[in-house]
Design goal:
Blueprint lengths: L4 E6 L4 H13 L3 E4 L12 H13 L4 E6 L3 H7 L7 E3 L3 H11 L3 E5 L5 H13 L6 H13 L9
Helix pairs in contact: 1-5, 2-3, 4-5
Length: about 160
Amino acid sequence: MNLKRIGVAADHGGFSLKELIKEKLTGLGYEVKDFGAHSEEKTDDYPDFVIPLARAVSRGDLERGIAVCGSGVGAGIAANKISGVRSALITDIFSAHQGVEDDNMNIICLGGRVVGPELAWDLVQAFLNARFSGEERHRRRLAKVAALEKGPSQEEL
């Protein structure tokens, strides 16, 4: 699988890092859809940008997404509210690729005030270059997680 359609989103806390990542991705030939913010507006709210990104990834309009807020925590929380999204706050290379390989992560969340630009770019590259293993144990685990999106089972009621 050769990923080419990537979405990016950020609030004011992640705006400059998003812009840098977008520029690098475009330079490598990726088709990048920018969900905003489109300026550094201190009063904006990360859900306004991250939720449309997450919906596009969930629908399959984009192959993967990159969400950035000040810490990356809020972006991850918001993205994971959308059915079919598997996002995580990533701060190390191992988790950037392992999250895809084992957990089929489709949105990486970064903290624009936490991770420097060079490390962020390394994390994005590890995320985009990784592929889901498809191993039975990983598919089984993901099925259990996906079942949660359908609501509680009869035993839980």
